[in-house]
Amino acid sequence: MNVDQENELYPLRNKPFISIAIPSSLISEAADLREKTRKVGYIGRAAAIFRVEEIMIYVDDNDENAETIAKILNYQEIPPYLKRRIFGKDSVLKYAGIIPPLKTPHHINPRVYGLDIREGIVEYSDDVKSIVDVGLDKKGIIYGSMQPIKTRITVKIVRETQGYYILKPIKRDEVEVYWGFIVKKFNSLQNLAEYSIHNNYTVIGASKKGLMLYRIESELGHALISTEKILLLFGGPKLDIDEIALNEGINIGRYCHYIVNFVPRQGVESIRTEEAIFIVLSLINYIKEKALMTMNSSF
Asked: In the Cβ-directed half-sphere of 177, how many Cα atoms lie within 13 Å?
């Protein structure tokens, strides 16, 4: 494998950053908590594979479903060595054992990607030092600033001593590799849509009623490299995005820059949301990386 191939395999957090939006009704037809957990776990796994930065949940049936989805996703995103410390026992997480592991750069040994960055939890802090569990063979120490105890923190390993790792707190945005997703919840599709417009997302709705992907692939490629944030909007098991919007008295076309059919001539009556997420993210990732490569090769 040559250097270029190795670079292309590296999981960079390159722009445009991708977010997905899913409805709370996603789990409405699941028979029990085990099936709900499995369904949500696959979505988290898809998000991690394609370096999704945010998973946004909008309520289209009830808040309880939204809270369940958020809790499972938040649990899944936390590094394995911190899960019990942060969550403890929770009835919603009864079937957490069937959630597929992410194995993202912040979940595995940092040496795999040659990193010196780690997630940790603050165990002790005073005005001199803070002790942090970073899930390695030694604890970490941050000197010179107090940190809230029992909080999660992103740190850079500055150096190693005989007994500790010397750490420096950093912001998540400073990490150059994919560092998991953040979960956000909205009270309605309209609330989510207005947030996305006000925060300059390019919104792409996934719907079988949309334009065929092959008709606008080139245009999408140009759009992806001219924006910083993309939001992919998905419907639920019963209603498409336009129908959910209609129930709220809004026109989804006002908020979407594109509405796209990503599966021309689909061979089934309907595609499940979790299936659609894998399909759409795969195609968007391909179009994005191809557009970036073309742009970089022209310089």
From this structure: 19
